[in-house]
Design a protein that fits this description.
Blueprint (H helix, E strand, L loop, with lengths): L4 H7 L1 E5 L5 E8 L3 E7 L2 E7 L8 E7 L3 E2 L3 H8 L11 E11 L4 E10 L2 E16 L5 E12 L18 E15 L2
Organism: Micromonospora inyonensis
Family: Belongs to the UPF0312 family.
Pfam families: YceI
């Protein structure tokens, strides 16, 4: 998160993600020919940012697996099952940051531990700082966008179906997408 130094100092503080103005989504290839997009509609997150020492930034995000939404009820139920997210055993997907590294004037890498189905692996998500603004209610908001590709098999999500024409029904590679609006707490 880089901006002019004076702006960074103003951004120091604790922020909460605004779920009504943020999106945590994903993209998977389906049947080798198209993409299915979805999102998680129930999540919360907290960011502690120090403009004097951005490397000390700490981020935590908790996503409720049951909130998965691909605009298809039958597919969503399958994704909630033991074949995929196993939400009854693992109701939450979590991310806890371990490092924050500035990579450009408005870009940074956020590294942390992503836990899906009780399996944790480190991921590094490149983000772009989209800016800050005071909303009509007097809240300071900051915006970020980022994406990272993970292999779902690394997290024990291995279900698939072979296609008659070759290939499989669901790609192993999943793109996680983040469009974040965070509100500074007073």
């Amino acid at each position: 998160m880089t901006a002019p130094t004076a702006e960074l100092a103003q951004l120091t503080g604790v922020y909460t993600l605004d779920p009504s103005h943020s999106r945590i989504g994903f993209v998977a290839r389906h049947a080798m020919v198209t993409k299915v997009r979805g999102a998680f509609n129930d999540f919360e997150g907290r960011v502690v940012f120090d403009g004097d020492d951005p490397s000390a930034t700490a981020v935590t995000v908790t996503i409720r697996a049951t909130s998965i939404d691909t605009r298809n009820a039958q597919r969503d139920e399958h994704l909630r099952s033991n074949d995929f997210l196993a939400m009854e055993t693992h109701p939450e997907i979590t991310f806890v940051s371990t490092a924050f590294r500035q990579t450009g004037a408005d870009t940074f890498d956020l590294t942390g531990d992503l836990t899906v189905r009780g399996v944790t692996h480190p991921v590094t998500i490149p983000f772009t700082y989209e800016g800050s603004a005071t909303d009509p209610f007097g809240n300071l908001r900051v915006g970020f966008e980022g994406a990272v590709t993970i292999n779902r098999r690394d997290y024990g999500v291995t279900w698939n179906a072979a296609l008659e024409t070759g290939g499989v029904l669901v790609s192993d590679k999943i793109v996680l997408e983040f469009e974040v609006s965070a509100i500074k707490q007073s």
